[in-house]
Design a protein that fits this description.
Helix content: 10-25%
CATH topology of the largest domain: Nucleoside Triphosphate Pyrophosphohydrolase
Distance between the termini: 34 Å
Number of helices: 3
CATH class of the largest domain: Alpha Beta
Number of strands: 10
Amino acid sequence: MRKSDSKHYKVKTRKVIFSKGPVHLVDCDVRMKNGKILSRQVLEHPGSVVIIPKAARDQYFLVRQFRFAVRDWLWEFPAGGIDEGESLEDGAMRELMEEIGFRPRQLTKLFDFFPTPGISGERMHLYLAEDLVPQYAQGDEDEEIEVRKFSSREIEAMIRRRKIIDAKTIAGFLYLQYLHKKSKKN
């Protein structure tokens, strides 16, 4: 939270309801600028990385994995949390090696965003990974991941047909297709 934001509210009480690893569910009473006191429950999260792995010209890796929160298998760009003391770039490289078995020689930060600002302060950092070389790292024991390459045209069709419904993947793909290409031309 930025210090400049504190003039709009003041946290009166803060109680950790649940904590596991780096994630905390917190109950807060907040006094707004107008004096009204609101109760808010927020998920405190240290942040994560999302990686767009470019396999070849117009070819990208996606992973398919079961997401318990939505009780379904989702196609998405590789992503994961940042370990304590780990840089964003190191976290992106680690996640890529764990999930698809490649390490990028070139890693470019594209942008960062809040995926669920109504309930969480998690900030996702999106990277483009290029010039991939095989390098495997042991992944999380609870992950079952299918890895496949898709063309931009295939990914766009999957989004249109609602075969890709993961927000970070849709945002990353649209950024890459429209904004990143324009910024490289200028």
